Amino acid sequence: MKLVLFDCDGTLVDSVRLIHEVMARTFVAFGYKRPDVSATKSIIGLTLDIAIARMQGKPHVDDEAIAMTAHYKSIFPEVRDEADMQTPLFDGIKSLIETLAARDELLLGAVTGKSRRGLTHILAVNEFTPYFIVSRTADDCPSKPHPAMVTECCDETGMDPHDTIVIGDAIYDMQMAKAAGATAIGVAWGYASVEELLAAGADAIAHHPNDLLSHIL
Which residue ranges run through the membrane (predicted)? Predict the structure, then answer.
């Protein structure tokens, strides 16, 4: 048996345009210039309040970062519903998940810096809900790269971290996996570079969703 834990943003779905637009509108609402998309990409995967504080160059979450987090969450649904703000699955993800879900020896889960509501929406829209039997979000655990998301999923499913594979596009995913004692597989179609993923501890790199099969099965 293996437990396969997927990150969401940048791994399953291409959501950078939406996340960046909500982040940019939040910064403008608080009197800041629109951040560059590269700044947004660098924090995707972190819990939102920590992400905002880091984009501002703050060492800790302060009252302003908390207020900006609340604003971000309040406008997110309306921005998501705009016609040009969709978050499509990356090519090949649908068939990959369906292939893995059909294997009795595999358990699938999600570990994400999204909110519980956000993850639930993504899984439901893409008809993935029955496939993901365990998940941890920003509402449940400390931010990545803390290992709690992985270790709690292991505890819930009765799996050992050594039999667990974490798949993600961010350095925080790789760091989280290694801290938990799990295998870390980076994906090249997300928001961090291959070099950054390897430096963060990736055991392997997948350049297309189909490449993951050889690392899992």
Answer: none
Please state, in angstroms and rounded to a whole number, the distance separating the CA atoms of residues 113 and 133: 18
Q: Which residues pair with 111 in a beta bridge?
A: 136
SS (H, E, C) 97-114: HHHHHCCCCEEEEEECCC
- Which residues are registered as beta bridge partners of 205? 186
- CATH of range 16-81; options 1.10.287, 1.10.760, 1.10.150, 1.10.10: 1.10.150
Top CATH class of 2-14+88-216 equals alpha beta
Interval 66-84: pLDDT, tens? 999 999 999 999 999 999 9
Rounded to an integer, what distance in angstroms lies between the CA atom of residue 181 and that of residue 203? 12
Collapse the DSSP code of 13 into the 3-class scheme (helix H, G, I; strand E, B; otherwise coil) and give the result. Answer: strand
CA distance 83 to 81: 6
Q: Residue 166's CB: how many other CB atoms inside 10 A?
A: 30
- Per residue in 119-142, pLDDT tens? 999 999 999 999 999 999 999 999
Question: Where is 209: in which H helix or E strand?
Answer: none
SS3 for 58? coil
